Amino acid sequence: TKAIWLDVDPGHDDATAMMLALNLPNIRLMGISTVHGNASSHHTAMNAARCLFAFGGDELEHKVLVYPGASHPLILPAKHDPEIHGPDGLGGVEGLPSVDEPKVQALIARDEEGQVIRALEGMAGHIKRFWNDGKNNGELKEKVTIVSCGPMTNLALFISVYPELLEAVEEFVFMGGGVGLGNRSAVAEFNILCDPHAAQIVLDAPVPTVMIPLNVTHTAIFTREIHLRLLSPDFSRSNHLSGSSTPLPLPQPATPLRHTLSTLITFFSSAYVSTFGSQFASGPPLHDALTIAYVAFPELFPERKRYRVDVELSGVHTMGETVVDLYGYRDGEWNKFDDNDRQNWGREGKNCIVVQTLNVD
Ligand code: BDR
Ligand code: CA
């Protein structure tokens, strides 16, 4: 199993990432921190707790809690995405418990005096404990993978405040950026655009980073066929593949959880079509779910390559673009790195593994 820390801004696709992280047998989720992004930090923290309850977090052997994090980017003012996720971040999603329910509030981390434990403290505390417990003859047996599905403000703060804990981090896996592709400007992706300075700090850290860009997440489409299968457990694969072109009516939801997911996808689909047009007529991309899929099943992402990646922090038209040095223009600035070399990450070299394909078969 892989020990992970998950940072999210739920957010419809963040919710799907949480569902995977909570239910895949080879993932051990240590904790969830939340960040401003798709909605305000208050909403994203509450949404994470609502999803955690609904997706079975309460039944796990070890308790997983939500640690509310940064409400603003490091430098820029906060921006949210109500067109895609609704004003509270989980527009249109039915069947989640409400914010005021004690069972939801009980999933927000608190200290003995009842004070909320914030993201930075929660991450550091868990990772430090994991580090100390995991040491074998002074060597760490296992490290923590930090997964990011939103703007990377919490990660940047963690790197800056606790540099000594980076030794315990296996890698940062983030959904964000694009290779010549944007979704919130011609060239900038939302998570990076929200806090570009934080993203650059993560890329400069002395820890491997893995970027899952829009180019890949746009191939992970939740199609109508998959939606039908979600609602009808015995809807067979061969049926829909050989079926007629007449659209089938959606069957009745099989379980409350399937119903919740179905309403989530329905809202997300129409938000995508009304914002981006017919390019997404076949369904919305489940961006954030791919981070957990990558950690659990890296073989699903067969092509990935290490590059120098920087974030445009001052461009008039290109603020927030992830600049990926595909052709090695900057290789001369440092010794060549072997793509498999786990050393020399960060400020001075090829700093990021860019995932290039998802095997959807
Ligand atoms: C990213 O931005 C958010 O809208 C999604 O949750 C995802 O993390 C996609 O650009
Ligand atoms: Ca997100």
TrEMBL record:
Residues 4-361 form the Inosine/uridine-preferring nucleoside hydrolase domain. It holds the Pfam family IU_nuc_hydro. It comes from the Eukaryota. GO terms for molecular function: purine nucleosidase activity. The keyword NAD does not apply. GO terms for biological process: purine nucleoside catabolic process. Signal peptide: none annotated. GO terms for cellular component: cytosol. Keywords: Glycosidase, Hydrolase. Belongs to the IUNH family. This is Uridine nucleosidase. It comes from Lentinula guzmanii.
